[in-house]
Design a protein that fits this description.
mainly alpha; rod-shaped
């Protein structure tokens, strides 16, 4: 028959979800600097929760920075568009005295 499937003892990295070699190599909890059990990302539930909140906060900060950058681009485009609309409106009033709509759009 076929060979038996490997057990967690055969593959220690499969024994726990979230196994990372870099965390195991450090031996210290990134939240409290306490002793880190092998194969764990944090030493306790409190530290796991703290790390999760920090990751979430960093994600929100990055998202907010991206949104702020987009708002700046849109504000700049809006100012440029308003400048063009005003220029066209002024030109329409100068060249077409019959247009009395007040919106500056000649021939509409």
């Amino acid at each position: 028959m076929g060979e038996p499937s490997p057990t967690p003892q055969d593959r220690p990295e499969a024994a726990r979800a979230g196994y990372t070699a870099s965390v195991v190599a450090s031996g210290r909890c990134p939240a409290c600097q306490g002793e880190l059990p092998p194969g764990r990302k944090a030493c306790s539930g409190k530290c796991r929760a703290l790390l999760s909140r920090e990751r979430r906060a960093e994600s929100y900060r990055r998202r907010e920075q991206g949104l702020e950058a987009r708002v700046e681009v849109l504000e700049k485009a809006n100012r440029e568009l308003l400048a063009v609309i005003r220029a066209v409106g002024w030109l329409a009033k100068v060249t077409d005295g019959r247009h009395g709509g007040g919106d500056g759009l000649a021939g509409c």
